[in-house]
Amino acid sequence: MKLPCFAVAGIMALMSLTLVAQERGPAISFEKTTHDFGAFLQKAGPQTYRFIFTNTGNEALIIQKVTASCGCTTPAWSKEPVPAGGQGFVEATYVPSGAMPFDKTVSVYANCKPSPIILRIKGQVVVEPPSIEQLYPETFGTLRFNVKDLSLARIAQGIVRVDSFKIVNKGDTPVKLTFSKLPKYLSIEQIPTELKQDEKGILLVKWNTVTSKLWGLVKAPLTVALNGKTQPELNLSVSAMIIDNFDNLKSADYPNEAGIQVSNVVYNFRNVKQGTKVTADYEITNTGKKPLLIRQVSADCPCIRINAPTSIQPGDKAMVTLQFDTAKEEGIDLVYPVTLVSNAPAQPVTTLLLTGTVEK
Asked: Which contacts qualify for 309-315: CB closer than 8 Å, 24 or more apart?
């Protein structure tokens, strides 16, 4: 996947959640960095969302200031120091001034690196109640879905995560959906079991990490049948980021576990001609006291091949090497994210970036 230059800020915000102090100091990790209010009525007034964070470092974390990208957004935050392992919040309140879509950012400055961290709120202000088209924008025949690709975000091993597709039947024929060839970790139930005309329902999705021990980013395409007839054109999918379960660990235990430090999370190949083969090396150090297990390294773009170790002993270094084929790539300030998943409790997911310009 290649991204234009204006997407770099969002990628860097994602990286900021996974980069933590490698020795001593505070570190901040938000449960999420983007919140979508969806469509709501203007008369509903200001909308507020509270972003929760954890101090995953070993010293007190202080939010020094929080600024908003425009006067329509008012921030609030935890004013007291947050101890190691403790939780705090940053709130963003959006005041609607008219019926329009909005996409605003909040910059969080703290006594940790990197700083600031960028949080994002977005949504759609409407004068009338949200339409079916707004609530269910994805279509397949007479069916409308809220999404076609359902992301369950991060799931720790041993956890069952539940979420749902939301659907509505706009046709005059009752519809029942069934699913075949589901992986053993996934189950889907339609509620109600049959949708009549204009009836709304959900597809209840359960992802069970106990039944199948996978790691990293996993995407499951779904084989769907409508009233018993398979519909290959209905491209639903469910994805999740599977990580180790660190629930039994306290932040004070982290130094005794595996640790990860990357010498250069961003590799800039600058300007190359289309067709050039680019090699990018990222030096990984295990800063902990147990072996660092590299669970998965993945890239969205098939133009990137990855060579990575499976484990690194305490104190040792190793290289993650990317082979980038630019034969079908072109653009200015391209950004290619690569996700590394490991058993380091302070930083289970690390984002590596490959950037540069490819010219014809």
From this structure: 309/284, 312/284, 312/285, 312/286, 313/286, 314/258, 314/286, 314/288, 314/289, 314/290, 315/285, 315/286, 315/287
Task: Determine the straight-line distance between the first and last CA of the chain, rounded to whole angstroms.
Answer: 19
Taking the C-alpha atoms of residue 52 and residue 150, their distance in angstroms, rounded to an integer, is 22
Cα distance between residue 238 and residue 171, in whole Å: 25
Q: What are the tokens at 309? A: 């170790």
Residue 347 neighbours by CB under 8 Å, 6+ apart: 18, 19, 20, 259, 260
Residue 291 CA neighbour count, 13 Å, CB half = 7
Beta-strand relationship, 349-359 and 266-273: parallel
Tokens of 344: 């380091």
What is the rounded CA–CA span in Å between residue 209 and residue 161? 8
Identify the sign of the CA torsion 254, 255, 260, 264: positive
**Helices marked H in the chain:** 8-18, 132-135
Phi, psi of 133 (to 5 degrees): -65, -35
In angstroms, rounded to a whole number, what is the distance separating the alpha carbons of residues 195 and 175?
Answer: 5
Residues 6+ apart with CB under 8 A from 141: 171, 226
Q: Is 139 left (phi over 0), alpha (psi -120 to 50) or beta?
A: beta
Rounded-to-integer distance, Cα 8 and Cα 172, Å: 46
Radius of gyration of the chain (CA): 22
Tens digit of each residue's pLDDT (9 = 90 or more) over 291-319: 999 999 999 899 999 999 999 999 999 99
Give per-residue pLDDT as tens, 86-97.
Answer: 999 999 999 998
How far, in Å, CA of 203 to CA of 206, rounded? Answer: 10
Q: Cα 192 to chain center, whole Å?
A: 30
pTM as predicted: 0.67
- In sequence order, which residues have a C-beta less than 8 Å from that of residue 6 and are 6 or more positions away? none
Q: Using DSSP bridges, classify how beta strands 34-41 and 117-126 pair: parallel, antiparallel or unpaired.
A: parallel
